[in-house]
Amino acid sequence: MSQTVRIKVSRYDPDQDDEPYFEEYEVPWEPHMKVLDALKQVQKQDPTLAVRWNCGEGVCGSDAMRVDGKPVLACKTEIPEAWCDRDTPPRIEALQVFPTIKDLVADYEEVWEKEKKFKPHFEGAEPKGEDGFYEMKEREVEQAQQMRKCINCMACYDVCHVLRQQMKQYAGPRNIVKVASFEYHPKDIENRTELLDTEGNIDLCNVTRCCSNVCPQGINITTDAIIPQKEHAVSEAGWDIITPIMRKQLQVQEWLIYNLKKLVGRV
Ligand code: SF4
Ligand code: SF4
Ligand code: FES
Q1: Which CATH architecture has domain 3-106?
Q2: CA gap 145, 123 in Å, rounded
Q3: What backbone phi and psi angles, to 5 degrees, belong to 242?
Q4: Is the pLDDT assigned to residue 185 strictly greater than 90?
Q5: How confident is the model at residue 196 (pLDDT cuts 50, 70, 90)?
Q6: 109-263: what CATH class?
Q7: How many angstroms separate the Cα of 81 from the Cα of each of 69, 71, 85?
Q8: Which has the higher per-residue pLDDT, 52 or 237?
Q9: Is 173 close to ligand 2, i.e. is its CB under 6 Å away?
Q10: CB of 147 closer than 6 A to ligand 2?
Q11: Is the pTM for the entire model greater than 0.85?
């Protein structure tokens, strides 16, 4: 007998709805089916459901969304058979740190705008050797390649508690990975470290590693991008103890205001 699975999908149309709400759907279940397959089935029942996807194979990063509160790629997240018997259907919603354009589609404009501050373009050097070849050490190539695995899915943004409160101020893990991809490239000659400090407030990161834990590309964001860039910023700026303390104080203050607002239902 064929099985079905129930899922709860967040619906939100800014032209009609004051706030998002969950709608329950029941779709046929098949072994190895993914969350994206279930959403395509839902679209057959209700073509107004907005879902962003492209490759269907974990390459483009466009279909990141929350499943039971965790940011994942819908095309890579399998629906196990056990979900058919769940009393409480899984909840699928857009990434919550961004504004929602419609249903499961989040607006990443803030990230692209912020990225412009960090000179996200390659500035190449002339070859060093007389023979016209570039010298690249194996370790440098590995580091740069790891950062270039980023598929801009924004899962790391969605779990970052600093961004939840200081979206405008903090560069965010994805943008730090982007900067690191240039900084680690042995042919790039631009220095973006100061920008990460002054424009991106990199010291706001308190290295919780939540971003690394959800990255579908397995990028070690904290250890291989954020910590080295922080260290670089400190060694370039010299020892400054006052600024980080003041920023930390601001962070605690904003955290308190955010949680007070949450307590009285204002966020
Ligand atoms: S390690 Fe830093 S960037 Fe990553 S989630 Fe934590 S605070 Fe955010
Ligand atoms: S660093 Fe990882 S989680 Fe963040 S946007 Fe890139 S691929 Fe996605
Ligand atoms: S659709 Fe491209 S990563 Fe999922």
Answers
A1: Roll (3.10)
A2: 17
A3: -70, -45
A4: no
A5: very high
A6: mainly alpha
A7: 20, 21, 8
A8: 52
A9: yes
A10: no
A11: yes
